[in-house]
Amino acid sequence: MKVADVHRLLEDWAPSHWSEEFDNTGLLVGDPQSEVTGILVSLDCLENVVEEAEKKGCNLIVCFHPIIFKGLKKITGKTYVERVVLKAIQKGIAIYALHTRLDNHREGVNDRICEQLGLDKRQILLPKSNELLKLITYVPKEHAEALKQGLFEAGAGSVGNYSDCSFSMRGQGQYKPSQEANPHQGVKGELEKVEELQLQVLVEKSNQHKVHRALLKNHPYEEVAHEWVPLANEHQDIGMGMLGEFSEAIEIPAFLKLIKTQFGTPVLRHSNPGLTSIKKVAVLGGSGAFAINAARRAGADAFLTADLKYHNFFEAENQLLLVDIGHYESEQFTKNLICEYLSKKISSFAVTLAESITNPINYF
């Protein structure tokens, strides 16, 4: 298996277009055609992680945070970023980062936080828009069912908990085949009129190419008339943050103790409670101050995130318990997600969870 093959597996799981515009994901260092000897999975990629990868015979590091975030003008080893890149190149170790692709994943960073807390009824806090397309095509009515089935098998027509969704409308199509044409129906040089169905299905952007191939494969016409229409609709299964609920309300002291236990952080920073118990909780791994108002609008009793500034705590308005659990602490289980996925997909060599500690923050 080559690095490029691992890239395809990760692309299927968390597509690159799920990355936020500011982000830098994908293969950051290394040759995509290199044969993979082993994969080390880590939250961050620091020098100690590169050293661990070499020691364990792994020439590919798949991490959450990208070590190269801004442009590098030189690689001399002067900064910690340059030293990591230089060492990885010297050792022939590739580096691949996922970051916001997993932040936006329905079963990614924030779902795992909810799992640690035991929250049910999970839903995306900030659904991502512009992730859906509408495919419109025209097909003879006797071929419509076979075409729909082919499109559904390719992933089209899935909406939330529903599959095989489509809309059809009857109409009449016409065309005149040229002498070079090979018409499925009709005579060259003569106008042909056909009773057709206009077929519409929703398609996720990540499935567009697969569905397009299925359209061409299953459609009877030599030339397939079709349209791809971008939709501004929010995708309820892709986006930042997550909402969940406890089966029963929990008192605030017990809630804070649960967080400290489950995330292993010795110190929590939180706002004035404004309430006595917690039932509905919003979470967003990493720096999530931008979602405070969204958590309030969603009716959350508490919002767990990290990197909150002094004035952010005022934004709770005594309506929401803000809890800063630490950046590393909020995302620490992400490496387990990545490792679990790759271990299921790859059996030809080891996928190893890094033991190196990468949290830059210490507590006294």
Q: What topology emerges from the helices and strands here?
A:
Blueprint: H1 3-13, E1 26-29, E2 39-42, H2 47-55, E3 60-63, H3 80-91, E4 94-97, H4 100-103, H5 109-117, E5 120-129, E6 132-140, H6 144-153, E7 167-175, E8 192-204, H7 208-218, E9 226-231, E10 234-251, H8 252-263, E11 269-270, E12 277-287, H9 292-297, E13 302-306, E14 321-324, H10 327-331, H11 334-345, E15 351-353
Parallel strand pairs: 2-3, 2-15, 3-4, 12-13, 13-14
Antiparallel strand pairs: 1-4, 5-10, 6-8, 6-9, 7-8, 10-12, 11-14
Helix pairs in contact: 6-7
Keywords: Metal-binding
GO molecular function: metal ion binding
Protein name: GTP cyclohydrolase 1 type 2 homolog
